[in-house]
Amino acid sequence: MRPAAAAPGTKPRPEPGDRAVARVEGAAIWASDVKREAVAQGLIGEGEPLDVTSDLFRRVLDEVIDQKLLAREADRRGLADSPLAQRRLEATRERILGDMLVETTVNRAISDEAVQTLYQEQLRLARNSEEIRLRLIMSATREDADAVRGMLAAGANFEQLAMQRSTDEATRFSGGDLGYATLDVMPAVYAAALRDAAAGDTVGPFEAEGGWAVLRVEDRRRETPPTLEQARPQIVRYLTYEEVRRLLEQLRGRAEVEVMLTGDPLAVPGAPEEPDSAPPAAAEAQTPQTEDAA
What we know:
Blueprint: E1 20-24, E2 27-30, H1 31-40, H2 55-76, H3 83-109, H4 112-126, E3 130-139, H5 142-153, H6 158-165, E4 177-182, H7 188-194, E5 202-208, E6 211-222, H8 228-254, H9 281-293
Antiparallel strand pairs: 1-2, 3-4, 3-6, 5-6
């Protein structure tokens, strides 16, 4: 069955299943307009539902109505025809079109297959990685660290000694527990000291950030990779970043871009002239917008 055609003189729904939730001077405000405004304000996440019966929806709807009333009044007073308004409207248009291009490009590139491929690569790397669980006693001086090492050699319990003697406030009350980590994310001095240490070994003292460290190797195991669903948000963020980076690299490679931070823009043929009354910061204030639009 074909969808019903829009009635004569009415505009079709902006999105499938959309509904008009208000009218301002006969112009419809759609539920999708309210949701888009809520996303723009950071009140909900992209793709997150917004119930039309909720207090949040009504509050944002009132803001959209107010904004439309203000815009109509500004238009009635002729403000839209001013050079400043035209420049701001063009900047907004460029920002919206740029966002839409990024969304379209990213949505096309980030597929379940792309996520799965990168996840499998992470799994392959994880199989070659080893995690080490550590406990730490940090001392202010080498003499204190040597004393700690001597007490451990005499049979003192590492966890109790950490609570009594360690100067590392982040771990002392958990018995010096640092949890599991791989050598590549540890400080270089830790990684060097632990490279050949086995489970049960005590390592140190050695000088590290914050003092002199004595470590106990609790366990060594192959890294446990996250599940696909656990890794998906991070993979999607990475793929999004890479796709946007490639897109901008291509666009900059094809375009002629001239940055004039140290030159005189009035000396460039065809460059718009700033009025004599313009404050010195006016030209500088436009530079970030130009970079963003690019």
